[in-house]
Design brief:
Layout (H helix, E strand, L loop, with lengths): L23 H11 L32 E3 L4 E2 L1 H7 L3 E6 L6 H12 L1 H5 L3 E7 L3 H10 L5 E4 L4 H5 L3 E2 L2 E2 L2 E6 L4 E6 L2 H12 L10 H19 L12 H4 L2 H26 L4
Parallel strand pairs: 3-4, 4-5
Antiparallel strand pairs: 1-2, 1-5, 3-8, 6-7, 8-9
Length: 275
């Protein structure tokens, strides 16, 4: 008789070991990899350019850091606003004593009495040194103070800073810190913004559309040349000291004519052969 043997049941498979936990440092590294960095906070209390748009409000304390007047006096936007009757107008320009900047500064000079009659104080603002701005102010007989901001802290705070220079534009703020204007523009356009804003139009018609385009184009060309380090033509000196009155010009011409006649007469005498 054959004896049947029972087969042993197969042993059950051992349960798989639990997955090892990733080290805490590795997990932290993975989280760090997917973390989106927050944008850096602007220095000196300067908000982004969009936050100083017309109609917004700024905190004057600490805004734009410390700057210097062309006379070497340290000041801030807050101090300038506090010293004004109604607020401050800042027009920015790329470089003192260049044609477009001279045109812009002289337009504000010519409208100075009209614009400041509203109680707003006018200042020019650039990265130039006090020496350069003082020369510029003196040569063009500018009746307002020029502000020097070599580090572009205030220029950046009002949204007029570029990587390699300064955007030509205008910024207006009242006593309460409300931004009334903050926009770039050509020499004539920046003045026109203030005229319209303060209700003081220099003319009944204002610049034509073509003049505005030419103004903006010329200003942009000059800014680009300054950024690239290319030489810019010397501006035409529009100061009274340099050009004088019509009567003074006529007298200068008359003197020149007399001097020329004397020189001609002397030459004729020299040409006469001796007897």
């Amino acid at each position: 008789m054959v004896e049947l043997r029972k087969r042993k049941a197969p042993a059950e498979a051992a349960p798989a070991p639990p997955p090892k936990k990733a080290p805490a440092k590795a997990a932290a590294a993975k989280v760090k990899d997917v973390t989106v960095d927050k944008p850096a906070e602007p220095a000196n209390g300067a908000p982004s350019a969009s936050s100083v748009a017309s109609g917004s409000k700024i905190t004057l304390a600490g805004f734009g850091g410390e700057i210097e007047t062309n006379d070497g006096e340290k000041t801030t936007l807050q101090k300038l606003v506090e010293a004004s009757k109604a607020g401050v107008v800042l027009f920015t320009y790329p470089k003192a004593s260049t044609p477009g900047c001279t045109n812009q500064a002289c337009l504000f000079r010519d409208d100075f009495t009209l614009l400041t009659s509203t109680g707003f104080a006018i200042f020019g603002l650039s990265r130039d040194s006090p020496k350069s701005n003082t020369t510029f102010k003196t040569k063009q007989n500018l009746p307002y103070t020029l502000l020097c901001d070599p580090s572009a802290t205030l220029i950046g705070a009002i949204g007029m800073k570029k990587a390699a220079g300064t955007t030509r534009g205008v910024f207006v703020v009242d006593k309460e810190g409300k931004v009334l204007a903050a926009e770039p523009g050509g020499p004539g356009a920046t003045v026109e913004v203030v005229r319209r804003l303060l209700g003081s139009h220099g003319s009944t018609t204002g610049p034509s559309a073509t003049e505005k385009v030419d103004d903006a184009t010329e200003g942009s060309k000059e800014e680009q040349m300054i950024e690239e380090g290319k030489p810019v033509a010397d501006p035409v000196d529009t100061s009274t000291e340099a050009n004088g009155t019509a009567e003074e010009k006529e007298e200068d011409i008359a003197r020149a004519d007399v001097a020329a006649d004397v020189a001609d007469s002397a030459k004729m005498i020299d040409d006469i052969p001796p007897v």
